[in-house]
Amino acid sequence: MKSHTQVVVIGGGVVGCSVLYHLTKLGWTDVVLVERSELTSGSSWHAAGGFHTLNGDPNVSQLQSYTVDLYKELEEISGQSCSLHLTGGVMLADTPERMDFLRLAQAKGRYLGMDLELISVSEAKKMFPILDEKYFIGALWDPIEGHLDPSGTTHAYAKAARINGAEIYRHTKVEEMVQTPEGTWDVITDKGTIRAEHVVNAGGLWARECGRMVGIELPVLAMEHMYLLTDEMPEVVAHNEATGKELIGVLDFGGEIYTRQEGKGMLLGTYEQNCRPWSPKETPWDFGHELLAPDLDRISPELEVGFEHFPALQNAGIKQIINGPFTFAPDGNPLVGPVRGLKNYWVACGVMAGFSQGGGVGLTLANWMIDGDPGYDIWGMDVARYGDWATLAYTNKKVQENYSRRFRIRFPNEELPAGRPHQTTPLYDKMLAQGAVMGDSWGLETPLWFAPDGEKAEDVVSFRRSNDFDAIGAECRAVRTGVGITEIANFAKYKITGAGAEDYLSYLMTNTMPKVGRIVLTPMLNEAGKLIGDFTIACASDETFYMFGSSQAEVYHMRWFEKHLPDDGSVAIEAINLGLVGLSIAGPRARDVLAKVAGADVSNDAFRFMDFREMDVANAPCKVNRISYTGDLGYEIWMTPEYERQVYTALMKAGAEFGIQNFGMRALLAMRLEKNFGTWFREFRPIYGPFEADLGRFVKLGKNNFIGQEAARREFEDGPKRSRVSFVIDALDADVMGDEPIWHENDVIGWITSGGYAHHVEKSLAQGYVPTEFSVKTDDGAFEIEILGERRKATLITDPLFDPKAERMRM
Ligand SMILES: Cc1cc2nc3c(=O)[nH]c(=O)nc-3n(C[C@H](O)[C@H](O)[C@H](O)COP(=O)(O)OP(=O)(O)OC[C@H]3O[C@@H](n4cnc5c(N)ncnc54)[C@H](O)[C@@H]3O)c2cc1C
């Protein structure tokens, strides 16, 4: 066993072996993998081996495609067969809503270049003869689906890695990890210690325990999962003989079942409602190559539906029932990347579909370790999307919810209830009492919209406009014609202090830093010149700045900020979290309201657009930004939580004479559309440059050196290849949700990032990206945007529909 190495990968499941292979493929060959037992000894050996490319997140879909394409390469390099069966598969719809879902999935696939096709049930039956047509109304065909041998595939990764120079130590258990003062790791195993520059936790079922060895609690939980294997079935044999083909894979949403051919019989698994976590607090170290006791009663409701939908199964003998555990993160996507605050400690865990996702996880993690960047937009898998708020108990509830909803539709306006309320602000009960429908903003309860008196404060979930439509319209109109108030506690807030604070921020950000009492908006870039943040920065004094950004990205951003902190102690950065909460008032009467309760002059001369002031509001010490995401005259007022009720009450009282009304996040997001404002993680993501995202005016190429400057300069000089644009859509009863294809004549030329109905201008709006040559075609009438399978006419607009001269913000 080596005593020194560049990387120790912990865990010889499919994920660890993929990470090992990709490190060697990309050039790091002094790498080892440590496995406490045999390879595949966690969940990998008993997987059903199914793979597919579709995922709710198109970026994850892309990486799933990569994984499937990789298997041929692996077989060639390793000489080890993965037993690939590329059968293709269908998703069966049993309701109109599910058909809408399939249409959406097909549309998303279009701009990713995926070859998905809506087919009839009878066409599906030709490829899967055991289905009973009467239960279904349509299907989506995906040719890139199939199954493989999980053990062979894991060994193929391992062999290919070994051929490239990696070493694998089996029957070697990591027991402790200690970071040395230089930042390397002593990985202490039962066979000796290895000093490594980097460690990767790919511990699968034991990922939590490998996290606890370094003092972190990863939000993963294992669930029991069952599938059945039948005896040989004559229907299967007959189909194979008649067509020379295997039965395809089938996903039956109604039965919450997946099924495919295995041998001459069938394999059938389910994500049952009566689901059960396995070892919720601690995974036993003596669990090995073993299965859990089958419990058919628990899955009998789903099996009954399956036996009705696929009647031939009723006559098939059950050869074996597999029950095994595997891990999930709260949202069901993997946890990948460097862990904030732990130098050179990486994770690749919570991978619930290792045979669809393992390749992409290995590739992006290896890119990240070697190049400092994952090379793809992997926000959907980044471990930094969870913070300390994702506790063991929260994770337990969310994972069970996610498991039992695996084959359920998540509607765009659907908020899931498990583990809520988790974090609340002091206004929570007041908001509920006024009819607020709350949403879960990464753990924090946030008002989405307010149901009028007498109406139920509850979303009716739908792909189309729903019961919140009129209420949100009224909220938007209240802001545009008078004044509205909303809670913005869910923004991330940071305090940056010290003699080096300005230089530090200026090195991280593309804009120049504000003078005392002023605010700037600024993107943040990575070295490749791609957007990794979008902030509002206010200067409170020469050595004190406040910064506001996306709450979901707080850990992601703190990881970056801390990585770039100078080590001379000249700068300190703190994520304030809920130490500051906020209210925003907006609309032409907003100043009148503030003036009644502010302890300072807030006239337009004394407190200009983009000014920052510390002042008393309703006797409470507040920090006030004169900006509003509504694009209207407005103020963001920040205070410590103990003052929030008092400030809110005073603002409501002061606003009564101007007809002040509550508004929620949905109205806020609708109003920013009519200003063409983009939003983080939709329009602004690490795949876009600042000029293509239309943020060029915030990039000061001539200022001091900043991260991403050269790449940004190249983007500017070469001209962006694609551009963020806005559309007015001739929509019917549904607006875009994001990820719809943009058609021009008969070609898909781009994709939608977000949109919705803009109530003040009374139009359905959307934003998205198109090749730059299309971004000026405002009058050619050839754009269409696909909404729920229907191509709707769209007109490209360059100026915001509301207040194009930006006078309202400055009034
Ligand atoms: C019944 C069932 C059916 C499934 N069907 C499918 C399917 O059809 N398609 C699909 O894609 N996925 C499927 N899965 C999920 C799939 O099995 C997992 O996604 C995959 O196995 C995860 O791999 P992993 O490498 O992350 O974890 P694991 O396979 O759990 O590997 C982790 C490894 O780390 C080792 N380890 C942990 N801690 C230490 C330590 N301290 N020192 C040394 N070694 C350590 C363990 O021994 C283990 O070998 C299924 C799972 C089950 C249970």
From TrEMBL:
<protein>
    <submittedName>
        <fullName>Aminomethyltransferase</fullName>
        <ecNumber>2.1.2.10</ecNumber>
    </submittedName>
</protein>
<feature type="domain" description="FAD dependent oxidoreductase">
    <location>
        <begin position="7"/>
        <end position="368"/>
    </location>
</feature>
<comment type="similarity">
    <text>Belongs to the GcvT family.</text>
</comment>
<dbReference type="InterPro" id="IPR006222">
    <property type="entry name" value="GCVT_N"/>
</dbReference>
<dbReference type="InterPro" id="IPR036188">
    <property type="entry name" value="FAD/NAD-bd_sf"/>
</dbReference>
<feature type="domain" description="Aminomethyltransferase C-terminal">
    <location>
        <begin position="722"/>
        <end position="803"/>
    </location>
</feature>
<keyword id="KW-0808">Transferase</keyword>
<feature type="domain" description="GCVT N-terminal">
    <location>
        <begin position="427"/>
        <end position="703"/>
    </location>
</feature>
<dbReference type="InterPro" id="IPR029043">
    <property type="entry name" value="GcvT/YgfZ_C"/>
</dbReference>
<dbReference type="Pfam" id="PF16350">
    <property type="entry name" value="FAO_M"/>
</dbReference>
<dbReference type="GO" id="GO:0016491">
    <property type="term" value="F:oxidoreductase activity"/>
</dbReference>
<dbReference type="Pfam" id="PF08669">
    <property type="entry name" value="GCV_T_C"/>
</dbReference>
<dbReference type="Pfam" id="PF01571">
    <property type="entry name" value="GCV_T"/>
</dbReference>
<dbReference type="GO" id="GO:0004047">
    <property type="term" value="F:aminomethyltransferase activity"/>
</dbReference>
<keyword id="KW-0560">Oxidoreductase</keyword>
<dbReference type="InterPro" id="IPR032503">
    <property type="entry name" value="FAO_M"/>
</dbReference>
<dbReference type="InterPro" id="IPR006076">
    <property type="entry name" value="FAD-dep_OxRdtase"/>
</dbReference>
<dbReference type="Pfam" id="PF01266">
    <property type="entry name" value="DAO"/>
</dbReference>
<dbReference type="GO" id="GO:0008168">
    <property type="term" value="F:methyltransferase activity"/>
</dbReference>
<feature type="domain" description="FAD dependent oxidoreductase central">
    <location>
        <begin position="371"/>
        <end position="424"/>
    </location>
</feature>
<dbReference type="InterPro" id="IPR013977">
    <property type="entry name" value="GcvT_C"/>
</dbReference>
<keyword id="KW-0489">Methyltransferase</keyword>
<dbReference type="InterPro" id="IPR027266">
    <property type="entry name" value="TrmE/GcvT-like"/>
</dbReference>
<dbReference type="InterPro" id="IPR028896">
    <property type="entry name" value="GcvT/YgfZ/DmdA"/>
</dbReference>
<dbReference type="GO" id="GO:0032259">
    <property type="term" value="P:methylation"/>
</dbReference>
